[in-house]
Amino acid sequence: MQEELDESFEERVMEMEQAIEHLKNELVKIRAGKVAPNLVSGILVDYYGSPTPIGQVANVSAKDSKTLEIQPWEKSMISVIERGIFEANLGITPMNNGESVMITLPPVTEERRKDLVKRAKSLGEDAKVSLRSIRHKALDAVKKAVKDGYPEDAGKRFDDKIEKTIKDYGEKVDALYALKEKDIMTI
């Protein structure tokens, strides 16, 4: 029974790692004043009938701190990429120069920075909700094991181990949020 609980715990730790990775990926998409190629990484374009990430049909690079250049591998993709960026509703307007698509980002205002911080906080809260859900799964597994004959004091120690692990991951979420908030608010 101990092996089953250990295996269940390892699965829950993997789920927690995935929640942290997801949070990192989402936080990277929040623009903090300087342009980054991952700003458009989640945008899908119609590539011969199938939705494809922009990064698979074009080279995306930061020309300078305010300009992103998307150079498609096929010139026919320029208008498709422009349409994909418009449809993504990022609040940015792409410009087509015949060779590539350029995105120039305006400077971020104080009000917009506060909105971005709220969005980052919301993503952090979503990650914490995910961690709580994982905690419930782990605690339910321990309760079931105790009900099936696993020693109660050992179950209590396992509960404490789960709580400590969840607390550690919650602190990781807080640290990621604090780092992103500092990045956003730095002018």
In short:
The protein has four helices and six strands. With 187 residues, it is α+β, with helices and mostly antiparallel strands.
Report on this model:
The protein is 58% helix and 14% strand. It is built from four helices and six strands, in the order αββββαββαα. With 187 residues, it is of the alpha+beta class.
Please name the defining characteristics of this protein.
187 residues; alpha+beta; Topoisomerase I, Chain A, domain 4; Gyrase A, domain 2; 2 domains; four-stranded antiparallel sheet; two-stranded antiparallel ribbon
* Largest sheet features: 4 strands, antiparallel
**Which percent range fits the helix content?**
55-70%
CATH fold group of the largest domain = Topoisomerase I, Chain A, domain 4
Rg estimate, integer Å: 22 Å
Q: Number of domains in the coordinates?
A: 2
General shape: elongated
Widest β-sheet, arrangement of strands:
3-4-6-5
Query: Which architecture name of the largest domain does CATH use?
Result: Orthogonal Bundle
Provide the fold topology:
Layout: H1 2-28, E1 44-47, E2 50-53, E3 58-62, E4 67-72, H2 78-87, E5 94-96, E6 101-104, H3 110-147, H4 152-185
Antiparallel strand pairs: 1-2, 3-4, 4-6, 5-6
